[in-house]
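The following block was generated as part of the benchmark described in Methods. Ligand: 2,6-diaminopimelic acid.
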Amino acid sequence: MMIPFSKMHGLGNDFVVVDERVERHGLTPARIAALADRHRGIGCDQFVVLRPACRDGADVFVRFFNADGSESGACGNASRCVADLLWRGDGRRESVLQTRAGLLPARVGETGLVTVDMGAPALEWRDVPLAEPVDTLHLPLAGDPAAASMGNPHATFFLDDILDLDPLVAGPLLEHDPLFPERANIGFAQILSREAMRLRVWERGSGLTLACGSGACAAVVNAVRRGLVERTCRVEMDGGALSITWREADGHVLMTGPATTSFVGTFDPEAYPS
Ligand SMILES: N[C@H](CCC[C@H](N)C(=O)O)C(=O)O
């Protein structure tokens, strides 16, 4: 049986989006990893599955899976894409996404840019999570990174020059550091001004991506905590820029950026190993 999907991206961080609100399609982690493979499958950074919401006030339950089949509690760029997909389907600019990180209100603006309230970051060591009680503003690792969770674990390194570290070398080593019992997404940031930074992210389970929404949120939170930037900051990544605000009133992080549909298609799940 052929299953329809939408191929979408947020600043080049790309996704396969499958709707399971009516029926399940037997998407095991192994099958998801096979579908995410850029040579033998459709190819994507994350595989996104829509399920019926099971919390009051939510429009849809969204699950995010990395290219290795592991599940993530948050995916900022994909959250914008899901909000855009819902709007194109029912014409409502506002939606609420139920995720493992909580309920995320989203709005598709008149210009087409999408804003998602990513919720409040978790800053305690056990909530990132880390393997031991440490100050999350200064982890006991070379390079003195900071850590925060946006529903998924992030470590942010602040570099004088973003080219001082090669994410392809440092990323996989740090992703699997024993300090991160659930692994971690590794951000490499260069502060450009009080209102802007450059960022590259080695993503847990997916590798170096062109952009990372939750990574941008975590990087701004960590930079504000260190007094490096203002609460509204532009985050420039290889694939483009996001506007991030860590709102003082309620501690929530707002992320605004584009969402793009590249194409739609179908696949036969039985053609992939389960
Ligand atoms: N690309 C996503 C992040 C995926 C995070 C995932 N790699 C994890 O295991 O936490 C974003 O835009 O936020």
